[in-house]
Structures are given as structure tokens and as C-alpha cells.
């Protein structure tokens, strides 16, 4: 039985004042239980989140990291720095970074390795565009995104990675994959990992793409959906805590 995990990706949203309100409310609303909960604010607010959530049940993650440890990489942040500022988790290869920042599969794989080397738990995002789904190559795309990581990191270490299946066409669009579409891809991802020698029964596979308190219960009822990576709905305490409660109840 895999414990459910719900991760909030704040993207480039927040301010000290707004975060304070959101984090205090989340701390009060998210109850300890059979779900792990992580919030991923922008870099400048990691310490604020860490301080306000200290002693509670919510952990802190970052939205990205450098593939390098230190040096002349202006504007970059290393895994060691994230650990230093209290992060346990990091999102890697989000589709917005793959498309807007040109992060190819090889870079994403190097970042997963850097995260593991620093003691962070990577949340590896994979997913196809609408064009790729309509062209019938969704599984090929997701399979090769996974392959790139397994070939760099190795099957043993990949078993400690969380995978987030995020169909690009469902992110921030209000269009959710149906629970059946998501389950089918999650089962495919698990089977792919097994084929590559990963102990995949223990790997958590999250769904991401317009998850709300309304659609979460049905998604979480599927056997291979182990939680959610939540964007927009993670910025509202009531909505995000209701998603966490749905995960705990499933
Ligand atoms: C995301 O940013 O990872 C995401 C899934 O966003 P949203 O929930 O807003 O679709």
C-alpha cells in the first residue's frame, strides 16, 4: 500500500504577506493522517515556509534545482543550497520548464541525479502535449522521458523518485484527464519502470493537471494514482486542504 502524497506547486505566485495567510491556514487545516503533504513556493520564500510550517505535518519543496553543485552558474540554485534552506523535496522537469527553459530529457535526468546526490526527493514530471496525444504517441513520449532518467540515474535509485504524470494539455487549462485516461497512463508508467528493472510497486505516481477538490476523489480512487501535483488549487487553503483530505480518505 503506497501512502498518498499531495504536492502544491505555487509556481511564480505569492508574497510574504499572502504566503503568511496561506501557510497559517494550511497548517491549521491539513490534519496529520494517511497522506504526506508538500508545498513548493518560489525560492525566496522557502525559508519563510520552513519557519511557518516547522513542527507541523507539511513539508517544503522547491520547484527546480541546478544540475551542478556550485560555481559560475549565475541565477542557479543547487540541491545542497535547497537542503540548507530546509527543503526535503524538489520538482524536476515540470513541463513549463521543459518548454519555456528548454530543459531537454538529458538535463532533466542530470537534475534528478543532482537532487538525489543532495539528499532531496525528486518529483519527476513527465507528460505529453495535446498534439502528441492526438497523434497517438503519448506513451512513446512518456516512455522516453522515463528512459532518459533511468539510464542516467539507474534502476535502483529511480525507485526513490516520485513520478508526476502531467499531461501538458491539462495543466492550468481546467481540462482534467479523465480518471480512466490518467489510470491508463499511470499503469503504463509503472509497467515501463518494471521493464527497466525498477522496484516500481513502491514508486508513487502522482497525477497533475487541473486537480481540484471536486475531481480529486475520483482520481484518487484509481489503483495507480498515488496522489496529486496541484498548481492553481494549491494557492487556496480550503481547496488544497480538501484535496489532501480526499487523498487521506481514499
Ligand atoms: C502544475 O503546475 O503542475 C499543475 C498541475 O497546475 P494546475 O493544477 O494549475 O493544472
Describe the structure.
This protein has an eight-stranded parallel beta barrel with strand order 1-2-3-4-5-6-7-8, surrounded by five helices. Helix 10 links the parallel strand 7 (205-208) and strand 8. It is an alpha/beta fold. Helix 1 packs parallel to helix 2 (46-53), helix 5 (105-117) crosses helix 7 (138-153) and helix 7 runs parallel beside helix 9 (179-195). It is built from eleven helices and eight strands. It has a single domain (4-249), classed as Aldolase class I (TIM Barrel, Alpha-Beta Barrel). The protein is globular, with a radius of gyration of 17 Å. The model has no long low-confidence stretch (mean pLDDT 96). 43% of the residues lie in helices and 16% in strands. Bound molecules: phosphoenolpyruvate (PEP). Residues 9, 11, 166, 171-172, 208-211, 229-233 line the site of phosphoenolpyruvate.
Helix and strand arrangement:
Layout: E1 4-9, H1 16-29, E2 35-40, H2 46-53, E3 58-62, H3 79-84, E4 89-92, H4 95-100, H5 105-117, E5 121-126, H6 130-134, H7 138-153, H8 155-158, E6 162-165, H9 179-195, E7 205-208, H10 216-220, E8 227-230, H11 237-249
Parallel strand pairs: 1-2, 1-8, 2-3, 3-4, 4-5, 5-6, 6-7, 7-8
Q: Care to give the gist of this entry?
A:
With 250 residues, this protein is α/β, with parallel strands linked by helices.
Amino acid at each position: 500500500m503506497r501512502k498518498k502524497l499531495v504536492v502544491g506547486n505555487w509556481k511564480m505566485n505569492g508574497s510574504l504577506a499572502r504566503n503568511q495567510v496561506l501557510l497559517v491556514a494550511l497548517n491549521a487545516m491539513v490534519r496529520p493522517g494517511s497522506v504526506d503533504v508538500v508545498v513548493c513556493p518560489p525560492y525566496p520564500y522557502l525559508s519563510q515556509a520552513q519557519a511557518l510550517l516547522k513542527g507541523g505535518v507539511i513539508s517544503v519543496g522547491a520547484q527546480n534545482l541546478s544540475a551542478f553543485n556550485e560555481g559560475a552558474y549565475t541565477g542557479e540554485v543547487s540541491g545542497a543550497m535547497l537542503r540548507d534552506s530546509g527543503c526535503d523535496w524538489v520538482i524536476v522537469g515540470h513541463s513549463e520548464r521543459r518548454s519555456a527553459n528548454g530543459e531537454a530529457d538529458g538535463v532533466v535526468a542530470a537534475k534528478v541525479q543532482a537532487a538525489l546526490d543532495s539528499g532531496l526527493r525528486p518529483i519527476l514530471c513527465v507528460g505529453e502535449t495535446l498534439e502528441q496525444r492526438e497523434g497517438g504517441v503519448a506513451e512513446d513520449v512518456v516512455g522516453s522521458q522515463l528512459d532518459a532518467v533511468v539510464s542516467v540515474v539507474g534502476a535502483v535509485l529511480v525507485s526513490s523518485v516520485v513520478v508526476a504524470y502531467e499531461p501538458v494539455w491539462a495543466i492550468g487549462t481546467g481540462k482534467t484527464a479523465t480518471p480512466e485516461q490518467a489510470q491508463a497512463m499511470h499503469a503504463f508508467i509503472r509497467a515501463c519502470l518494471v521493464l527497466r528493472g525498477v522496484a516500481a510497486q513502491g514508486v508513487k505516481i502522482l497525477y497533475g493537471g487541473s486537480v481540484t477538490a471536486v475531481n480529486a476523489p475520483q482520481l484518487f480512487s484509481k489503483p495507480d494514482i498515488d496522489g496529486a501535483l496541484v498548481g492553481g488549487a494549491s494557492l487556496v487553503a480550503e481547496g488544497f486542504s480538501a484535496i489532501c483530505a480526499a487523498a487521506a480518505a481514499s
